[in-house]
Amino acid sequence: MSATVVEIVKASYLKTKPNDETLGFGRTFTDHMLVMDYSVATGWTHPRITPYEPITLDPAAVIFHYGQTAFEGMKAYRTDDNRILLFRPEKNFQRLNASCERLSMPAVDEAEVLEYLKQLLIVEQDWVPSSPGTSLYIRPFIIATEAFLGLAASKEYKLVVILSPVGSYYQNGIQPISIKVEEHYTRAARGGTGAAKTAGNYCATFNAQTKAAQEGYSQVLWLDANEKKYVEEVGSSNVFFKINGEVITPELNGSILPGITRLSVIEMLRSWGIPVVERKVSIEEIFRYDDEGLLEEVFGTGTAAVISPIGELEWQGRKLHINDHQIGEVTQKLYDTLTGIQTGKVTDPYNWTVEV
Ligand code: COI
């Protein structure tokens, strides 16, 4: 199938758009969405832009029982001269296909879906906000729709892309957040689905996240499932530590999500001559570096979270106060450069942005 113009059914009324100042994360949705269907007999078919509306599924659909699903998170940004930019979108569709592979779901044609997404963004262009720190969050997802309770991969799927104008993921914007190391629960085990962007990885974090929030923390830091020793990731992002001039991030090991912001941060730091190491890093080691006065900055990276400084880390009743709860120099430079490239304010030497 070639990427032609998708069928477009326009919404009969258009919603009132929220003010940029009131935008939080993921509660407001645009007027239209992109939908495609898959069956084993036809492959992916019938791409269409429809009004944003509820999806009706058979109660026996595989998604409801066995959670066969994958999703992505990406953003569209408005430039000062009113162009709309995507950030490394091909990486998101590659990762969607990697998630599909792990979950026994059919791959999509990456270039074709990107083309359809651009058409959706043209229909919804007025929804891309322009204030600093805002963007149009893009949530592509695939669900297993076959009505069958036997334990087997579905033979039918739906791909849907919805759009949501967003501000900062965290309430206090780019202010450093507090994080608690989770010592009881596990997010993902080696050989499991941790590297895939799939619903179960996220709902498995809700209980620890709720408890941490009750104690005043914004997020949970997950350790490896085997030894509860090595740092993996934060609920909504990958994590980086600046220690004595060097930046360390946990190496991808099959249970960590391969973040596109993570990759971009590694590439930016290397291009600035700042050493970056991807390796196993234990939580005990991080606390030891702090005792030695060597822990300089900690930050999370993600599409929704962007670059989020971490000001406090709690583990086994001990608390680290990082950089006096101030955003670090490298963290700030990464935030400014990344968001500058994404919004077209800073030259993009890496060719990461794609114009819609
Ligand atoms: C994203 O950063 O796009 C994510 O998917 C994180 C999210 C689960 C809020």
Task: Provide tags for this entry.
356 residues, alpha+beta, D-amino Acid Aminotransferase, Chain A, domain 1, D-amino Acid Aminotransferase, Chain A, domain 2, 2 domains, nine-stranded mixed β-sheet, 18 strands, globular, binds 2-OXO-4-methylpentanoic acid, BCAT-like_C, L-valine-2-oxoglutarate transaminase activity, pyridoxal phosphate, Branched-chain-amino-acid aminotransferase, Aminotrans_IV
Characterise this structure.
The protein is an alpha+beta fold and 356 residues long. The chain folds into two domains: 7-168, 2-Layer Sandwich (D-amino Acid Aminotransferase, Chain A, domain 1); 177-343, D-amino Acid Aminotransferase, subunit A, domain 2 (D-amino Acid Aminotransferase, Chain A, domain 2, Alpha-Beta Barrel). It has eight helices and 18 strands. It has helices at 62-66, 89-102, 110-123, 199-203, 206-214, 260-271, 283-291, 329-342, and strands at 7-8, 32-39, 43-51, 69-71, 74-78, 84-87, 135-144, 156-166, 177-181, 219-223, 231-234, 238-243, 246-250, 276-279, 295-302, 306-315, 318-321, 353-355. Strands 1, 2, 3, 4, 5, 6, 7, 8 and 18 form a nine-stranded mixed β-sheet that branches. Strands 9, 10, 11, 12, 13, 14, 15, 16 and 17 form a nine-stranded mixed β-sheet that branches. β5 (74-78) and β6 (84-87) form a beta hairpin. α2 (89-102) packs across α3 (110-123). It is globular, with a radius of gyration of 21 Å. 2-OXO-4-methylpentanoic acid binds next to loops.
